[in-house]
């Protein structure tokens, strides 16, 4: 049985932008931090996908995570979005917002929520 079955996986990491002065580019330090966070987030997923013989492409963008994920999914005609969620209660979700909640309401494709274990 071929496990990959021609699946294409996009690993998307979206980092919220730090407050900027209009016209000022991101600092090298901010860009390096984004890449470091993305590497950490992608490494476990890439290991699993390699075992399954599924190729993955990395996409690292700055912006509000839900907006970035929705934009990439729309641009690439995604069949499904898989996203981790921490299961915040209603009050915490209201105060902090929820990427998974926004995706559930606005995604134009299937959405799979995967629980993220607490550290």
Describe this structure in words.
The protein is α/β, with parallel strands linked by helices and 119 residues long. It has a single domain (8-115), classed as Rossmann fold, CATH 3.40.50.620. It is 42% helix and 24% strand. The chain has 4 helices and 4 strands; from the N terminus they run βαβαβααβ. It has helices spanning 28-51, 65-75, 90-96, 99-106, and strands at 8-15, 55-62, 80-85, 110-115. A two-stranded parallel sheet has the order 1-2. A two-stranded parallel sheet has the order 3-4. Helix 1 (28-51) links the parallel strand 1 and strand 2 (55-62). Helix 2 (65-75) runs parallel beside helix 4. The longest helix has 24 residues, at 28-51. It is globular, with a radius of gyration of 16 Å. The relative contact order is 0.18. The model has no long low-confidence stretch (mean pLDDT 81).
Helix proportion: 40-55%
Using the CA coordinates, give the radius of gyration.
16 Å
Q: Quick one: CATH superfamily?
A: HUPs
**What is the CATH top level name?**
Alpha Beta
Mean pLDDT level: 81
Q: What is the number of helical segments per DSSP (H or I, 4+ residues)?
A: 4
Strand residue percentage? 15-25%
What is the global morphology? globular
CATH architecture tag: 3-Layer(aba) Sandwich
Total domains, how many?
1
CATH topology: Rossmann fold
Major sheet: order of its strands?
1-2
Say how many strands there are: 4
- List low-confidence stretches: none
Q: How many angstroms separate the termini?
A: 36 Å
Biggest beta sheet summary: 2 strands, parallel
